[in-house]
């Protein structure tokens, strides 16, 4: 049974990462439709604003509660997040509330002064219920959109694989949050198999999306992204083999850690290059920062897995 303090902390940490990811998914969907599909644009925009509100509410409960490790990991915000948002507002005209990011940059962690307060626990539980319903609705929207794109009923500038990718992330968020809401003890160290299989596949797909959105003249970056795609495809296979007990998970964790350190560096350089207009591509700056935060999130998990005794696996 999850303690009250861990329930509060883990719930808020999950929202600080994933609610931002979901609101950005909605933004990427919104700006990928053609004018003909204004109904899809409006629906995606409505989801974006609802996740804006969810994230803002999570932030308001998080000060002094969430861990410093999460706040300092680069998964909540990076040094580029605000500038990437501002550039994306300029390019699209979508009014992203950058004040949320400014408030988030000032969050303090780990004092846990309020973490056992019954009122805070109740508010977090209510936030989780609201989030579960919102994630469920967004997943339905993504599912319908993917079906419509595959059957050529609608055109979008987002790859079908990207639609499937962001649908899987929504389902993963829902699954983790549902377990927290049920007060299940979630020991991520013991879930290395599932997490590494999931995130290695995500990292592989990021690499392929980046490769496909770079200008054809950016040959060096294309080759680097392609190599990362191949490397993380192999790591995904290895993580699945570890689940079948045919390979030690410790080796997969070490290999995944080294690869994720490198792809995080690549995404850092890429995001900076996008913000500073030094890379030719059709990548909106916020997408670069988005993929960087996901790499940083995975890197924090891998550090936890590496510290865990082998018997915990």
UniProtKB/TrEMBL annotation:
Tell me the Pfam families matching this sequence.
DUF2935
- State the Gene3D superfamilies in the record: Protein of unknown function DUF2935 (1.20.1260.120)
The record's InterPro entries line, in alphabetical order, gives: CotB-like
What is the protein name stated in its UniProt record?
A: DUF2935 domain-containing protein
Record organism: Clostridium uliginosum
């Amino acid at each position: 049974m999850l303690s009250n303090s861990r329930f509060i902390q883990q719930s808020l940490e999950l929202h600080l990462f994933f609610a931002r990811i979901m609101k950005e998914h909605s933004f990427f969907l919104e700006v990928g439709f053609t004018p003909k599909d204004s109904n899809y644009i409006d629906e995606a925009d409505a989801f974006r604003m609802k996740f804006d509100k969810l994230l803002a509410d999570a932030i308001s409960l998080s000060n002094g509660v969430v861990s410093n490790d999460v706040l300092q990991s680069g998964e909540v915000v990076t040094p580029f997040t605000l500038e990437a948002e501002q550039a994306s507002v300029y390019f699209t005209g979508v009014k992203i509330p950058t004040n949320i990011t400014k408030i988030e940059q000032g969050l303090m962690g780990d004092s846990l002064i309020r973490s056992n307060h019954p009122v805070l626990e109740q508010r977090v539980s209510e936030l989780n219920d609201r989030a579960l319903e919102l994630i469920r609705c967004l997943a339905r929207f993504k599912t319908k959109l993917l079906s419509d794109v595959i059957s050529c009923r609608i055109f979008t500038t987002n790859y079908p694989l990207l639609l499937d990718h962001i649908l899987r992330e929504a389902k993963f968020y829902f699954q983790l949050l549902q377990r927290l809401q049920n007060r299940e003890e979630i020991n991520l160290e013991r879930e290395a198999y599932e997490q590494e299989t999931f995130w290695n596949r995500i990292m592989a797909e990021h690499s392929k999306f980046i490769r496909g959105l770079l200008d054809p003249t950016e040959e060096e970056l294309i080759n680097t992204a392609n190599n990362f795609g191949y490397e993380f495809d192999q790591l995904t296979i290895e993580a699945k083999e570890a689940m079948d007990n045919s390979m030690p998970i410790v080796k997969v964790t070490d290999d995944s850690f080294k690869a994720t350190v490198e792809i995080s560096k690549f995404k850092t350089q890429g995001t900076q290059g996008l913000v500073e207009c030094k890379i030719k591509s059709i990548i909106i700056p916020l997408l670069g920062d988005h993929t960087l935060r996901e790499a940083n999130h995975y890197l924090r998990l891998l550090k936890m897995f590496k510290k865990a005794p082998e018997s915990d696996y």
